[in-house]
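ARCHIVE CARD
Drawer: 12
Card no.: 0347
Subject: one protein chain, sequence and derived structure
Cross-reference: see card 0346
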Amino acid sequence: QDPTAAHYMFQDDPFLMPRNAANSRLYSLSKESGKNAAKYIIKNFPQYFDKTFADPNVPCLMPETLTPQIEGMSEEALKERIHLRRVKESVDMFDQLVQAGTPVSLETTNSLLDLLSFYGDGESASEKQEEAKEDLEEPGVNASEQKAPKRQFQRGSQSSGPRWRENNHAERIFKIMPERNAHSYCTMIRGMVKHGAASRAYDMYTDLLNERHKADVHTFNALIRAVPYLKERFIERWELAKEFLTHMAQQEVQPNLLTFNALLKTLRRCGGVGRSMCLMVLKEMEALDIEPSLATYDHLLSIFYRGVDLPPSGIISEVLDEVEKRDFTPQDPDDGKDFHISDNLHWCCDLKDIKLAYQLNKTMGKGDNWKFLDVDRLNGYWSKFFSLLCMMEQIEVVLKWYKEMSPSLFYPTPKNILDLLQALDAADQLEVIPSIWEDVKQLGFTRKQELLEEFLSLMSRDQHPDEIQLAFAKCAEDIKAAHEPAGREQLPLEWTGSTLGNVVVLFSRAGRTQDAWTMMEHFQQANRIPTDKVMDEFLSCAKQTNCPDEAIKLVKLAASLGLPSSQRLKSRTEEEFELSEAQK
């Protein structure tokens, strides 16, 4: 793997090679948006893609038929619309069939309930897109007047999600069904849990028991997930979850992986009760020969590491020992979504345990486990891993990882650069700073004030050999350029006293007297006061380059600023420089 190459998704277009994590996120989202836009065009305008030019023709690569083919009112037409997920059309046709006295089979009605329970009595994505297209194509209406309120409604629906309305289409159809079976009750319960009506789901489950029906494993999984919304106290939540498990045993329903994951997810919200019971749940999984998934381990770690004041537990090491032995495939919707490897690495950082971090990194690199992390999480993971390396490892190891990881695996954040600078300072290897500064320019962090001050502080603190001082002065020149206005839209950075002073010191030590004096003039312009160290460094530079005029200018500047050191500078100038009568 080329450590200087960007992620493979960006290599098709060199112009869009990201410079930093923000660019990487923007470009990756843009690429996915382009794919979604192409899918939208194909789905909504299939008539433009009905000609087959491919030879041989591959049907699975051609657009799907998403428009109803059966016309008229019939149960077959209703089944087709349910299959195409056309919620509104399916409900309308069902009502028309009922009003016409045409019987609809129990199986078809249950399929309609499945559709309504999944979408929460809302519209499917394809229906929303078609409605938006029709609104935009409606003549005589200003498009801008329509877009604003519709966009606002979509934002609201996405933030809160579709909710379960009382007496919605699903409940209305359920009530008028001439007969109901266990599937009818189960799909209603799952829909109510999915869309935030936990108490109504529990009432529906009571009705199911009263009708002598049995729930399936998916319904029990949904009810166990809803427990935290049904009870307030921790012990009551555990008792209710245990009651559902007892009912499963009585109804001879075999639990699966999702059952135990739902139980552990509930125990995450049961405080100390969850910590005391979760290991018992794992033993039960082992007894039933059910292998944990990534979500199982994430729930377990969250139960033990949720509180900030909890003492360190060895559970994370045991979990990593188990995870390290396996290759994972997605089995639970929470796999990958909930097992945040970067969060687990955060716990490693809190515990200051570099061995655990290496173990977690080895696990992440095994097989296809890395696929559980998207680009954002992958960058977050490597960022935390690198910060821990800077804190705990030798500088040679840190620099080796830095060269191998950036930018092929991650883009360092400003905090990563600060951590690296502190590691270089602790190891007394400040000569590496100029190469780090080149990376900072590439990453686009030259306007990060905290970062600039840290660079200048480290470079100006001690005297170094001439070659290093010249490299430091070049970095100071770049920082000086970053403080100057670059265009109308970009405001110049504000000079601070320490920043000005450090730049003067770096120019002075490199023998760049004129550049150093230019920066000294900025003190008066920016209403800042130079320190004695800054003025002494400049005076030593003026002496070394034999520039008495600059030394006199310094004395005048100190006097104009009313500094107490002006008299000392005057005496030193008279002693160390050969001044003409006019200069005296």
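Annotation on reverse: Residues 430-484+493-583 form a domain with the Serine Threonine Protein Phosphatase 5, Tetratricopeptide repeat fold (CATH 1.25.40). Residues 134-160 have pLDDT under 50 and may be disordered.
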